Amino acid sequence: MQIINSRRLLFLVTVSAVLIVVVLAATVNKYHTVNKDPGLSFTEGFLWEAPDTSRIPLTDDGMLIRYGRDLIANTSYYLGPKGRVAAITNGMNCQNCHLDAGTRSWANNYSAVFSTYPRFRERSGTVENIYKRVNDCIDRSLNGHPIDTMGREMQAISAYIIWLGQKVPRNIKPLAAGIRDLAFLDRSADPIRGQAVYVQKCQRCHGDDGQGLLNPDSISYQYPPLWGKNSYNTGAGLFRMSRFAGYVRDNMPFDAPNNSAPLTDEQAWDVAAFVNSQPRSTKDYSKDYPNIAGKPIDHPVGPFKDNFSAEQHKYGPFDPIRLAKEKNKTK
Ligand code: HEC
Ligand code: HEC
């Protein structure tokens, strides 16, 4: 009896010791805390800074990274309607939506791409790598044709994006990555109020017809278009209200230094409603979101898992949809 008891004690002590070590290791190594939802975890207080471009090595690999950066900043020069490499996109630059070549805080930067891809995405219902994600933006935001993943252009773009995110640990999404999620309005976003915001705060650059302004070389835009055939298509991220509102809330009007004259959240939602109710090229949605339960609540086209109207999925109010979705999950 005695012996069994002391054995049991020894066993318990060993198990507790192992547990303590595991718990300690997890706490010390908090930075690498495993998250089951890759790409959706934030490290508190970790504000990312892009590596200095002067540190790109002077090697062949370095040249590829530099070319990638140039493709992001001057996409239309290479791939636009008069593109030097191929005429396969609408004339916008990646940088129009990923400011400062994808390095600015809350301006849709690329800090979390290398750390979170490959990852599963609901839109395609597959695990996507960086090539697939880049081609998605070419296909939708640039309303273009996907490029060969083994070609020099895709290799360069991904080399640059990987170089940017090289120091971000796996599955970590730094603060200020991507686009901010604004609080929802308690009403639907209003295209009529949005038009007033547009006239007052956007039109002087993006034009009274939303077509932007071409540079004198007519190869690239000084002010990119916001709707019409040269703009992003209906499959693009910005066509979702939350993405558009979040992006412009932090980044437009473009000439206010450090976003010193920001829109209110309300203005951002309303101007999103106005711009996204203007005509633009359409994208075939039939293959998107094979699992309709995974559709974002502001995806504007059915079928939907819930009974809210397409109109409400487009303009809100979004809180009732969100609450219904959460309730469904906990059932
Ligand atoms: C019209 C605006 C627009 C243009 C132009 C554009 N993108 Fe995007 N891009 C977006 C939006 C919106 C997202 C999704 C952001 C979100 O879901 O929060 C995105 C996401 C991405 C992502 C994934 C980012 C992440 O953290 O998951 C990559 C990579 C990307 N774009 C690359 C590119 C490249 C390369 C180009 C040019 C060939 C480009 N984009 C052009 C709007 C644009
Ligand atoms: C001072 C000029 C200026 C004003 C005012 C301005 N923008 Fe922009 N906007 C730009 C420029 C320039 C870019 C592209 C930035 C780049 O390439 O670095 C841009 C990019 C954008 C983009 C992403 C690219 C695209 O064409 O889809 C959106 C969306 C946008 N602006 C919306 C707005 C909205 C909404 C307003 C008003 C609230 C506004 N902008 C006010 C100059 C301006």
Largest sheet: 2 strands, parallel
Average pLDDT rating: 90
Proportion of β residues? Answer: 5-15%
This entry's quaternary arrangement is single chain
Tell me which CATH architecture of the largest domain applies here.
Orthogonal Bundle
Regarding CATH, which class of the largest domain?
Mainly Alpha
Shape field:
globular
The end-to-end span amounts to 49 Å
The domain tally reads 2
Query: What's the CATH H-level homologous superfamily of the largest domain?
Result: Cytochrome c-like domain
Class inferred from helices and paired strands: mainly alpha
What is the element string, with H for helices and E for strands?
A: HEHHHHEEHHEHHEEHHHH
Give the distinct bound molecules: heme C
Number of alpha- plus pi-helical segments: 13
- Ranges where pLDDT stays below 50 over 5 or more residues in a row are 21-39
In spatial order, strands of the major sheet run 1-4
Helix content: 25-40%
Strand elements, count: 6
| The CATH topology of the largest domain | Cytochrome Bc1 Complex, Chain D, domain 2
| Radius of gyration (Å) | 23 Å
